[in-house]
Amino acid sequence: MNSRQIEYAILLSQHLNFSQVADELGISQPSLSKQIISLENELGVKLFDRNHSPLTLTPAGEYFVKNAQELLYKESEILKALSKFQSGENGSLVIGVTPFRSLYLMPEIIKKIKAKFPGVRVTLHEATSAQLRKEASEGKFDFAIVNLPVDESILNVKKLEPDTLVLAVESSMAKALNIENKDYVDFKQFASIPFVVLSPAQELRQLFDKLCTNANIDPDISAEVVGVTTAWALAKAGVGAALLPLQFIQNQFIDKDLTLYKIKNNLGTRQPAIVRRKDQYLSDYAKYAIKLLTE
């Protein structure tokens, strides 16, 4: 049994399709099947039930995959720790981060990391906070930046500056609203304008939906997008108002085309944090990156 066979088995357990996995790995289906059969013969049990369509895991297969993932994680941690004893400074730093935080938060951080550790390759894995929380608990990153809450029995947590959410409204649209005080405005006052929203699975959209429910508003949704940057651009163009993190706008997109309103409710902030598995090895360059983020 080797790491490659274990990785093949784990990937097959996720997709349950020999052809799809073979294509993803860039090998032939017979070659993949041979590796899986060889692994099963060595273990003395069947991991996959090939009599079902689609393919299913056997009880032994479920047990194997659960523990094999942890085995590969431990192997990776050992190799990372051993690399500290090598004479060179080459290495890799993998950071999980949401796309909008990657845009405004990471460029200067990566610049400073590369200046101090020029041989280190930095990889940003961009995904939603929900996906990052899951993958951080599996040890797939050196650390990730996610929104709380997380499972603190598994993950080490270091809080960052809280996000403040604001409603960004194109200035002529805002002028028509005739709202003088921009701090802590009742969301009901925006019932007459259209909105640009994120897709339903995203946390910002869920917060927006709660705002509408609490204010008893049936929103006029003029556009639904995936990215915060796109929502900002459409809000700036006057397509509709968008609920956005204030830090994102202030750090990246200061302009006079948007009027920003703080909403009067308890949903107006989010708590981001740096998270990593509690038993995870932390390289010197990962420690340096965390220090930069928390200064």
The run of helices and strands is HHHEEHEHEHEEEHEHEHEHEEEH
Portion of residues in helices? Answer: 40-55%
Radius of gyration: 24 Å
First-to-last CA distance:
45 Å
Unreliable stretches: none
What's the layout of helices and strands?
Layout: H1 3-15, H2 18-25, H3 29-43, E1 48-49, E2 56-57, H4 59-83, E3 91-97, H5 99-116, E4 120-126, H6 129-137, E5 143-147, E6 155-159, E7 163-170, H7 171-177, E8 194-198, H8 203-215, E9 220-225, H9 228-236, E10 242-245, H10 246-252, E11 258-262, E12 269-270, E13 272-277, H11 284-294
Parallel strand pairs: 3-4, 3-5, 8-9
Antiparallel strand pairs: 1-2, 5-13, 6-13, 7-10, 7-11, 7-12
Helix pairs in contact: 1-2, 1-3, 1-4, 2-3, 5-10, 5-11
How would you briefly describe this protein structure?
With 295 residues, this protein is of the alpha/beta class. 46% of the residues lie in helices and 22% in strands.
